[in-house]
Description:
By secondary structure, the protein is α/β, with parallel strands linked by helices. 37% of the residues lie in helices and 21% in strands. The protein is built from 13 helices and eleven strands. Strands 3-2-1-4-5-6 form a six-stranded parallel sheet, with helices on both faces. Strands 7, 8, 9, 10 and 11 form a five-stranded mixed sheet that branches. It is globular.
Amino acid sequence: MFQLIQQNDGLSIGVFGIGGCGCNTLNSIFEQRESEQAHLYSVNTDKVVLEHTQSDEAVLIGAELTHGYGAGADPKVGLQAAEESKDQLLTLINGCDIILCATGLGGGTGTGASPYIAQLASEQNKPVIFVATLPFSSEGQFRSNIAQAGLNELKEHANAVITLPNDQLIEVLGNDIGLFDAFKHSNQILHSLIKSLIDMLCYQGLINVDLNDFAKIMDCQGDAVLGVGKCNDESELTTALDSALNNPLVNQVDMSSSTGVIIQVNCKDEISLGSYNLITDTVRQQVSSNALVICGVSKIESLSTNYELLVIATGASSKMVIDDLNKDKQPEEKEPNKAEPETTDIFDIPAFIRNQAPAPCTK
Length: 363
């Protein structure tokens, strides 16, 4: 059993930024990194983007295939680039105990390379979590179809996938917020997750959660809830828990079907027995009675707030369903004046044709 005594300097968390969106995320969190145990790796087919990305190590995948000029919005090229650079990727993966990945779906590198990287990590028995951004609906059905196909494949290999639909930035933050500020809100989700995982696994707790506990929960594949809530007053813990479970920027997940849960409570001083029981009971009531629930409590004086809650629930099903390429063509509700477009498998369209048109052709 992997044991953590005080702070474990040997634990390594690899944070991969894949494609343009993932590399932008690394730039956002690089200066906020508070632990040497988080190692940032940028992965891209575009050498110019890599040159302007802040990370500990940059990997130009598919150098012979793309010559460093990108994947041309073609997921097949992204996949082939990752396959060409398999040895480089495996070297990074094997140096990590836990792998967190940020990616954007709907383009070439992120959509094509991310499932392959998840597969490599899974084959090396590494817990792998993805935070995946989905395109704005205004970017068109073509990109949405690419993103959904990539998401479906990603879920086959990753232990947990958190989806951040860009449309929810508008719904939650409004149209007037600056574009850069809006994306900072998304990036903060990944940063909070990284910090909370390090705190949970790298400090000895009164009730301890170790790496094997974490790996056990990550074995429950499916959609995931990974949320962080913070507060300063003990009376605000239920509000913090609600923030952890219901982040409006994250694709909502039905926790009742979760098969594995971790509840981690970090506090600067002490938490009352009643508050601890209230938190654990609240979460337990939302999941199956047969779910494996692991609880942890740690005292960490360096916390920015007095209390911090981390909830990880895996093996769940998504509430918010984005258009699925494999769904039946019989929608429950359909506007009479709008024709239902015929679904086209974009990966059967030759690359040179796809690059000439903004959307797939329909009959």
